């Protein structure tokens, strides 16, 4: 019918009927896929998981969120789009399959043209026999300790605010972003007050000095003066803030100068997304080495790069 019906031939000649329409008319089997990642709200993920269990969703396209803490039955196949960074990650991922007495469980891993993937591809037995090292905390890592110092200073400042502070606040609220192209940054931004507070650390009480002393004792930053640590935090934040505000101001400027509604809307929406980003997530994304407290460092076997 798709090949011979004159009405279909007429539509096909006008470009209004394609091979996709042929497939729809033939009712072929199909797979329904959904994303499963930290970017999806948890209530939505629960809906996807329930539908996957019921067979209404056939494929879950997952990030590392599926490695731990999620137990979904009836998983028959796990496909890794690349070689996991460690054997523990690999075991967690392939272990999603065959957990509830399925008839079979299968795992496949694609090896890309990258050094780590090629090492595993050339020696899969060696990769699978790699020793899984216990988690350890690297107190001799200046960058790791610096993350905790910066996070501690930010916490002290926010807890001292008279009206309190919500950790769910947006980046725009903390950075003083406005919607006006001629005045994109408010003069009383909380981030500027934080930087001034850091710069004035020599005037703070001894209790705060003791806080940083306890935090850095026995680490790579042991012996650094609290004033120097606070100054380093201020410098890092000023650099981060400068890049963020420059990008934000550019978006508002281009939105104001745009003559086409679609172009104006595109720049306006991008600026809106920047303002609405979750503050802590944005700090982590913009400068992970400085802002994200890390609980531990994981090490590979010495035999592996």
Structural description of this entry:
The chain is mainly alpha-helical and 305 residues long. The chain is flat. It is built from 14 helices and 4 strands. Helix 7 packs antiparallel against helix 10, helix 9 packs antiparallel against helix 11 (226-257) and helix 11 (226-257) runs antiparallel to helix 12 (261-276). Mean pLDDT is 83; it is low at 288-305. The strands form 2 sheets. The protein has a two-stranded parallel ribbon with strand order 1-2.
Provide keyphrases for this structure.
two-stranded parallel sheet; 4 strands; flat; mainly alpha; 305 residues; two-stranded parallel ribbon; disordered C terminus
Share of helix among residues?
A: 40-55%
Shape: flat
Over all CA atoms, what is the radius of gyration? 27 Å
Number of separate helices: 14
Percent strand equals 5-15%
> Which stretches are poorly predicted, pLDDT < 50 over at least 5 residues?
288-305
**What's the average pLDDT?**
83
Task: Say how many strands there are.
Answer: 4
- Give me the side-by-side strand order of the main sheet: 1-2
Task: Compose a concise summary of this entry.
The chain is mostly helical. Helices cover 50% and strands 5% of the residues.
Write the layout of secondary structure elements.
Layout: H1 6-13, H2 19-26, E1 33-36, H3 42-53, E2 59-62, E3 77-80, H4 87-94, E4 106-109, H5 115-122, H6 124-128, H7 142-159, H8 171-175, H9 190-199, H10 206-216, H11 226-257, H12 261-276, H13 279-286, H14 288-291
Helix pairs in contact: 7-10, 9-11, 11-12
């Amino acid at each position: 019918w798709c090949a011979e019906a004159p009405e279909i031939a007429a539509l096909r000649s006008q470009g209004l009927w394609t091979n996709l329409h042929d497939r729809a008319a033939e009712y072929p089997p199909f797979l329904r896929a959904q994303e499963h990642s930290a970017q999806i709200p948890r209530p939505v993920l629960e809906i996807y998981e329930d539908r996957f269990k019921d067979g209404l969703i056939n494929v879950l396209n997952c990030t590392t969120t599926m490695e731990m803490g999620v137990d979904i039955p009836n998983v028959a196949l796990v496909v890794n789009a690349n070689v996991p960074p460690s054997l523990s990650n690999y075991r967690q991922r392939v272990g999603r399959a065959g957990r509830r007495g399925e008839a079979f469980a299968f795992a496949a891993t694609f090896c890309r043209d990258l050094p780590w993937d090629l090492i595993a591809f050339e020696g899969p037995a060696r990769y699978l026999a790699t020793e899984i090292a216990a988690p350890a905390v690297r107190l001799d890592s200046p960058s790791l300790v610096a993350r905790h110092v910066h996070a501690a200073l930010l916490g002290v400042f926010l807890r001292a605010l008279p009206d309190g502070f919500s950790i769910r606040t947006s980046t725009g609220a903390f950075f003083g972003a406005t919607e006006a192209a001629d005045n994109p940054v408010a003069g009383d931004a909380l981030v500027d007050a934080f930087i001034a507070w850091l710069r004035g650390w020599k005037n703070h009480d001894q209790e705060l000095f003791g806080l940083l002393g306890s935090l850095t004792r026995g680490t790579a930053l042991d012996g650094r003066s609290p004033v120097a640590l606070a100054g380093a935090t201020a410098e890092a934040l000023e650099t981060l803030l400068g890049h963020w505000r420059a990008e934000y101001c550019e978006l508002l400027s281009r939105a104001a100068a745009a003559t086409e509604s679609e172009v104006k809307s595109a720049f306006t929406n991008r600026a809106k997304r920047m303002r609405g980003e979750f503050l802590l997530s944005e700090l982590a994304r913009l400068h992970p080495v400085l802002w994200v407290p890390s609980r531990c460092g994981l090490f590979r076997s010495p035999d592996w790069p």
